[in-house]
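Tutorial sheet, problem 5. The four components below are modelled jointly, 826 residues in total.
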Amino acid sequence: MQTSETGSDTGSTVTLQTSVASQAAVPTQVVQQVPVQQQVQQVQTVQQVQHVYPAQVQYVEGSDTVYTNGAIRTTTYPYTETQMYSQNTGGNYFDTQGSSAQVTTVVSSHSMVGTGGIQMGVTGGQLISSSGGTYLIGNSMENSGHSVTHTTRASPATIEMAIETLQKSDGLSTHRSSLLNSHLQWLLDNYETAEGVSLPRSTLYNHYLRHCQEHKLDPVNAASFGKLIRSIFMGLRTRRLGTRGNSKYHYYGIRVKPDSPLNRLQEDMQYMAMRQQPMQQKQRYKPMQKVDGVADGFTGSGQQTGTSVEQTVIAQSQHHQQFLDASRALPEFGEVEISSLPDGTTFEDIKSLQSLYREHCEAILDVVVNLQFSLIEKLWQTFWRYSPSTPTDGTTITESRSESTSFPIHFHG
Amino acid sequence: MQTSETGSDTGSTVTLQTSVASQAAVPTQVVQQVPVQQQVQQVQTVQQVQHVYPAQVQYVEGSDTVYTNGAIRTTTYPYTETQMYSQNTGGNYFDTQGSSAQVTTVVSSHSMVGTGGIQMGVTGGQLISSSGGTYLIGNSMENSGHSVTHTTRASPATIEMAIETLQKSDGLSTHRSSLLNSHLQWLLDNYETAEGVSLPRSTLYNHYLRHCQEHKLDPVNAASFGKLIRSIFMGLRTRRLGTRGNSKYHYYGIRVKPDSPLNRLQEDMQYMAMRQQPMQQKQRYKPMQKVDGVADGFTGSGQQTGTSVEQTVIAQSQHHQQFLDASRALPEFGEVEISSLPDGTTFEDIKSLQSLYREHCEAILDVVVNLQFSLIEKLWQTFWRYSPSTPTDGTTITESRSESTSFPIHFHG
DNA sequence: ACAGAGTTGCCATGGCAACAACCG
DNA sequence: CGGTTGTTGCCATGGCAACTCTGT
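Model answer (structure tokens):
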């Protein structure tokens, strides 16, 4: 359906720039760009279809209120949720925040308002991205596993659009182009759209950083990476998943390709991370084993009637695979037990420090999970820089759980 | 014009809660609320009109694209800007981020979409808040100063709505009510809507914190405060003003009431802050003296034809008054001159430290400007906590500007 | 019924890049 | 004309509170 016009560089490049540290008000502003040579990279077009777990998708269509959510709630919740996203030519993505409440809105550059914001149609369970503005969502396949539910997003046409839109200014087709194409290619090679699954943004970004490191590419920051990936895998939605108080932002509607090397790495590392977990944490995932209607164990996807057990388990593991994250692997630190506070330091300060330390540990675990061992030192430097000697005073953070004392030592000892 | 129905507490309270530090994953979650007694606080209704500086206001009305911006650009900029805001009963505020691109959207719970999102009308230069949903913008008065351009937002009816909407759940009219009423009252007493001026959010929030401190009230956090103030002064827009790289978020469309004590404090402190500034910085504000078309010295407000000099100067001072902020008062620190870096510390690290330090200084200056001297110690603790001895190593940050070395010492010496 | 947990809306802030205006 | 600066759109993350769901 898509012609194979490749992202043939000249004249259309994304202007995502190499991350220059120009944040201070220093007026010099040197733009140091690595002169990667102009390799015109053929953007691969077809994504293989395999191991597609039928996460059920549904849509609701009202007269002038359309909810195109993968996760329709069946309640009287004031429904600000919606999370519509326009399928327009690129730039305007509607995130959770800012989407309207209860009534329409959303809109692309072609004024689709009259139709209710998003046009819909159902084809045989396949999720197609026509390049224009319509958005097709396949309905749920309720048979046994491994059906083809999605795939083949990010056709070259789409990418072309993405590039054009991201760029939006004309004649600058320099080294940025190839640099970007490389990023695009990597993303296309390793990820694919898939309904019902989500990836933590940090995981995805860490993968990206690792990729950049390996290939000596300048990474863009997380925000720009967000723009990039949304321009490729259109229709990504935002979710915040995780335990209470530890929610992390996820890209919902994307997963690691089953044949991606990232997949293998992640699995290995997951196993390692699993082994580190105290028993209590492991049981966290157990209740999801008792299979019932809901396929992926998450709120989302409303009523699902005829799923098989096998299917559910697969979807589950799929979900876990992408979902397991440092924030979950780490045990909760529990309360701090301190006899006497030395100075004017309040209990809040202690908790703050604990929180920071936990974040640090999560970061460490995260890079380890992603095999980015070289980043460990950087993380340590970042965390401890402002405390060359000891953390502020003599108080040590003692954790109530026995196994988890001085957690990162497991990794560095 | 408004009936004097007071926010008489029972049955309608805002559920903004006292800020409990439940951020860690500690499961206890004690909600400690100060049992302020149920003083039914009469919400004052009429705001005095005085010293209204005619910041010029304008509106543009298209067929189905309405730009109700205080700052219409006259260009071909893709105009995602718009910054529409719904005037609905409360909760749904449309910030810069997320508002549609180029085509309508925006929407309240009463489906005003057909009208183009925001209805407009012009009355004789007065900005009126009818409690329903329409938003009236006065046009610019092009005569001498002190005309009545705005005022009298936040009528009791509006507040009632705000309360109802913020609350949205019914029967909990407890101590929260009076606590909130106190906040409301304070906000109503000290601020008013005004077109063409803006306040840094930090300033406003600091004022609020100070207020809470003085009255032994539990402050809400900045986000919740944002909800609160937007529910009262509807139509606030978001701006990010400041020098490049130092932009701060502002509430645009609000100012300190001319008779507010905050005003006096701020002026005094500004003077002090001004005196601290090296000469070069003071000149920063000078170019605005050369009066030309633009009234308030900011981008925004497009074509203004017949303003008098007096008017401009007044608007200018008005603007400065609200706008002068620590981020501007502080001189730029300039480049760091370091002979040798000791460890693996990179130049980026130094710049990072410098940036942090500057933020620290700005914070200090900010609290001093707002006479919150008791917060200074807290700030210091916060900043130096992770560095009990010296900042990381022997390197000292030398600033290129002569007067500004060790800036905060002026305040603590 | 109540408490705890997950999810999400609304608000906050911040970085990067694009754009416009301005200045030399 | 190019470089600099202010402003803003789009993306990111995070906190609080409301809501739902689930387990006791």
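Marking note: Residues 331-412 of chain B form one domain. Full credit if you identified this.
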